[in-house]
Amino acid sequence: MVWARTKLLIWDYLFEPVKVIRITYAGRTPEKFYSKIPELAKFMFNIPDSYMQERDYTWEKLPDTERFEIRWDVYKILDMFSQIIVEIDMKGFTTAGEGRVAITLRNARVITEYPQDTIWQKSFVYEFLRRFWHRLFYHHKRMEYINVGKEIVVKFEQSIKQFGETMNG
User: Fold this and answer.
1) Which of 93, 111, 110, 115 is CA-nearest to residue 102?
2) Rounded to whole angstroms, how far apart are CA atoms 5 and 115?
């Protein structure tokens, strides 16, 4: 991840056309997904706790019902220029131990960042050399990162489904 005020960003969505993965579970104790999703994400993406941020959290407890809505952002740093980002939404309710939850994986993408802060980085020569290096060497690496990201997201999706099946069975 590049720390610069000005940077060139290249977004590559992992799935073309852009796809939203939606998993729905209905059954006993759907609130257990709240603790399981971060655990699975940290394991599948091989990231520390700090690379999964809980962006929004709403948990409403009423006398007979609980409603919840949580959003996470998962960041996997690949090298100094590229990272994988996936947004995870979870929304559901439970009444007397039974309920429903919908989990959505959105905007899975590889983002490549090139700094453009200094006069040298803004120059024509630097841009020419950067583009040459990018096309000749780094483009292939980004394509590898996209394939790795696809595998991780698909395995993560499968592990969520498998957890839901074990809860019902």
Assistant:
1) 93
2) 8
